[in-house]
Amino acid sequence: MEAEVFIETERLLLRQWKESDKKPFAQLNSDPETLLHFPKTLAEEESNSFVDKTIQLINKNKYGLFAVELKDSGKFIGFTGLAVPSWEADFTPCTEIGWRIYKGYWGKGYATEAAKKVLNFAFSKLKLEEVVAFTSHFNIPSIKVMKRIGMIHDPARDFDHPRIEQGHKFSPHVFYQISRSNFEM
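RESULT FIELD:
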């Protein structure tokens, strides 16, 4: 059975997850270079649990952190999509855009290509007013993607991530946002 495709770009399919995505996703999540800007890598069980929860959320909401597949080869390369953080902060509730791509596919514009289409989906289909993104202030590659997709840094909303131990170097996060009125569809 084919997984439902929610968004298609020139080179990518953003779709529901398949059982066959679990093994490569666990490899991605266990790679210290890929998760360089996270407090820790994920064990296979943690990675699989993430996929299972994500599948349920996409089935329920008809959006989420979509699996990303190369159209030309059918290869799974990571995820891009929308999530609602389950923790509290000054800016929650909110809808966050996020991505995680296999390091072998970095520098090819895939995260930017997928994220632009996800923003279009968020504003045109879901009618959201704002989408946010945040990451460790060390995560320059993700910050560059945020800028390329038109997001604006709001230093007044930078914060210490509540799920990362205070004092940890990755606790301070930068906050970016884009509103529907500022997004060029």
